[in-house]
């Protein structure tokens, strides 16, 4: 499911970027809405960063899936902060960066979780 959401974010961002009307409405909504979007994005970023740091502190080096999930949360926090910057500056570039960071990170970490979660087959050496 996360793989599909990551791909959907990239596709939706690309489609919105090609449509000037949608892009303008997304980047420069009314000032009150922009303020809410900036505050919400910063709040989400702080929560995600806190959860990431908490997972990293709790994980041991043998818990590779847990570490991958913690890194995913850190990158999603960076994406939230980039989105906040885009709305604060009323410029599309940070929003594009946020969509790319979030989309690529979710896709990449989903593949990593598939790889590290795959059962390994070791022959007995006895």
Overview of the structural elements:
The chain has helices at 2-18, 20-27, 31-58, 64-89, 92-117. It is built from 5 helices and no strands. Mean pLDDT is 85; it is low at 122-126.
List keywords for this structure.
5 helices; 126 residues
- N- and C-termini, Cα separation: 41 Å
Percentage beta strand = under 5%
**Which structural class matches the secondary elements?**
mainly alpha
What characterizes the major β-sheet? Answer: none
Whole-number radius of gyration? 18 Å
Overall geometric form? flat
How many β strands by DSSP? 0
Proportion of residues in helical segments: over 70%
Helical element count?
5
List SSEs in N-to-C order.
HHHHH
The stretches of 5 or more residues where confidence is low (pLDDT under 50) are 122-126
Determine the mean pLDDT: 85
């Amino acid at each position: 499911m996360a793989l599909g959401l990551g791909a959907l974010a990239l596709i939706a961002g690309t489609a919105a970027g090609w449509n000037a009307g949608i892009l303008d409405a997304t980047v420069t909504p009314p000032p009150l809405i922009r303020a809410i979007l900036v505050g919400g994005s910063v709040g989400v970023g702080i929560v995600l960063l806190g959860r990431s740091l908490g997972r990293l502190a709790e994980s041991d080096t043998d818990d590779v899936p847990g570490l991958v999930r913690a890194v995913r949360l850190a990158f999603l926090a960076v994406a939230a902060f980039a989105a906040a910057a885009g709305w604060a500056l009323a410029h599309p570039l940070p929003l594009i960066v946020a969509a790319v960071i979030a989309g690529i990170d979710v896709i990449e970490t989903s593949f990593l979780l598939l790889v590290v979660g795959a059962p390994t087959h070791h022959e007995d050496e006895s």
